Amino acid sequence: MGARARTPVVFIHGLWMHPDSWSNWVALFREAGYDAMAPGWPGDSATVAESNAHPERVANVGIDAAVAHFATVIRALDSKPIVVGHSFGGLIAQKLLGMGLASAAVAIAPAQMRGVLPLPIAQLKSAFPILGNPLNYRRAVPQTAKQFYYGFGNALSEQESDELFARYAIPAPGRPLFEAAFANVFPNSPAKVNRTADRGPLLIIGGGKDHTVPEVVARAAYNLYRNAKTVNEYKVFPDRGHSVTVDRGWKEVADASLAWLRGKGL
After folding, report:
1. Rounded distance, CA 101 to CA 197, Å?
2. pTM
């Protein structure tokens, strides 16, 4: 008999993060026996430096375009993957799961989907540099180290936050933030998720100190699944911020995700 096929895992980053931000996770999941990859959003450049030099490549990329891009990646695989997403990647992971394109999903600090109502002040402050200027809808906008420290690294030392900023931060399209911000206004918003689909299990993870996607927002997303007839679970890391996938404590979250997947026989 031939070797058992390795289950594919597709990692999807969020805004202001380069696909390389998943490098530790990809290595860990490969060691655990999965066929792991982090393909990046449409327009992403090969390196952080190139991404920062050419922000125009991701300008005006919205949620629908990103979902279509990852759907194409997934359909080229030999089997349905597990999808792991952070921030807007977590929202996209839920959309792909609801479309029947994933066997399971882990959504880490997922961006707001339609139906999520809490809008904490910390989240507004984090998003204001983008949402405060309507022209940013069609632009790609970088963060400053100070903005990154507030939105991503607030649970870290400023030194560690600055190191992560230098290593992984890239300009992000403004469009997804506007789409999520107005999701509850438009019935067919790109941020709408099929929560009643007959599909595989979902784990949502929240960070208790997250400013970009406060824990109350992640928990509200989980609560929207309360009437779904599928497996939906929630886990919170009380002392973690939005940098949860890349900071010095990344492995604790990755190990918890792996343990959950194995517990589901995946």
Report:
1. 11
2. 0.95
